[in-house]
Amino acid sequence: MIGSVAAGLLGLLTLSIPVGIVLFLLGFGVDTFFSSFPLTRGLGNMVWSASNSATLIAIPFFVLLGEILVRSGVATRTYAALDRWVSWLPGGLVHANIATATMFSATSGSSVATAATVATVAMPQAEKLGYDPRLFSGAIAAGGTLGIMIPPSINLIVYGFLTQSSIPQLFLAGLLPGLGLALAFMVITVLLCMLRPSLGGVRRTFPLAQMMRALVDLVPILLLFGLIVGSIYKGWATPTEAASVGVAGALLIAFFFGGVSFGMLGQSVLGTVKITSMIMLIVIGASFLNFTLASAGLGRELTDFMNGLGLTPLGTIMVVVVLYIVLGFFIETLSLMVVTIPIIVPLVVAQGYDPIWFGILMIVLIEMALITPPVGLNLYVVQGARKSGTLSEVMVGTIPYVVAMLVMVFALIAFPSIALFLPQALQ
């Protein structure tokens, strides 16, 4: 059954059928060929139970928050401010790409939205200042992946919903690895540009007065991050409540910078509806598929298979890591999460691993899938923002950052406290 479901998933995706529809079709197939019970009779109840969650209401709020910041011009101001602070480093404006992605990751919760934001603002600068197109675009694609690690993360919300884990704990656990990855991206950029200065374009310095004035454009984003994440950590608000407060804060920031208009608000709401509908279709479709798979005995079949291998807990984790890397080449990242979590997480927890820690490890692997071909969404987002060049240039440019992610994977396995220190310290 495992092989049949995997083959069906890949086959349907190659036909360019929307992912959410694919998940429903696979659920109907499992019901027809592998179950002795009419599981489709529970479809209505499954759709209702999968979508009737107060936790999931946070998703459209965080999406709307990001849409407001992007469409009101706050992104452009943030990028220009960070340019003045980090462009003196070897690599110049490439660091502004990574730093801007990091800051917007702390508000948008979406990797694709973060990559699209930075790409739209940064790409016009690449050719004008003589940057290597591979490294410049690769840094944007990799920096965008931080949107699902640094809180507030939509993917962490989905993971917490599916595993019944504490979302505030997951947000805490993702903070240090997310900032660590951002720092690793910048270190790799510095090393590459020291070895080959032509990759980094012109290093620029600015007068201290200009740098200090630029802080005005950074403070609102930092305050917004503190408002959202701080209220969750302090227990003053649930993730959903904090997200709604964040939307109000984003509107105030946009109003302060003169970016509020009826057109902007309409575009933001429309973008939110589109993205949220896509996410919910995938979540509901995956819930139905997981229901049929569990009812047909796949969980038991997979558990017996893993036990039959006689692996140690470390061996099990390494098998899971390889599995996610391989699947990440072919399956859209959110779909990969919601399809595998109900099957993989119980196996990992049974080996004695912390579900919060594994959630962060999974997110790093999902981040890799966002910038590895042929399905890496961030690759296509960045390429779409370029006026020239090939997709292969973006792919080559992400290779150093994929290496950094692999290092983080093994660091998390060797030192789980990287993810668990803050949740344990602030309990």
UniProtKB/TrEMBL annotation:
InterPro entries (UniProt xref): DctM, TRAP_DctM
Residues passing through the membrane, by range: 7-30, 50-70, 135-158, 170-193, 214-233, 245-266, 278-299, 305-327, 334-350, 356-382, 394-422
Gene Ontology cellular component list: plasma membrane
One Pfam match: DctM
Domain TRAP C4-dicarboxylate transport system permease DctM subunit: 8-417
Topology in membrane: Multi-pass membrane protein
Alphabetical UniProt keywords: Cell inner membrane, Cell membrane, Membrane, Transmembrane, Transmembrane helix, Transport
Protein location: Cell inner membrane
GO molecular function: transmembrane transporter activity
Quaternary structure (record): The complex comprises the extracytoplasmic solute receptor protein and the two transmembrane proteins.
Matches recorded under NCBIfam families: dctM
Family of the protein in this entry: Belongs to the TRAP transporter large permease family.
Described function: Part of the tripartite ATP-independent periplasmic (TRAP) transport system.
PANTHER family given in the database record: C4-DICARBOXYLATE TRAP TRANSPORTER LARGE PERMEASE PROTEIN DCTM, SIALIC ACID TRAP TRANSPORTER PERMEASE PROTEIN SIAT-RELATED
The protein's name in its UniProt record: TRAP transporter large permease protein
Organism of derivation: Roseobacter ponti
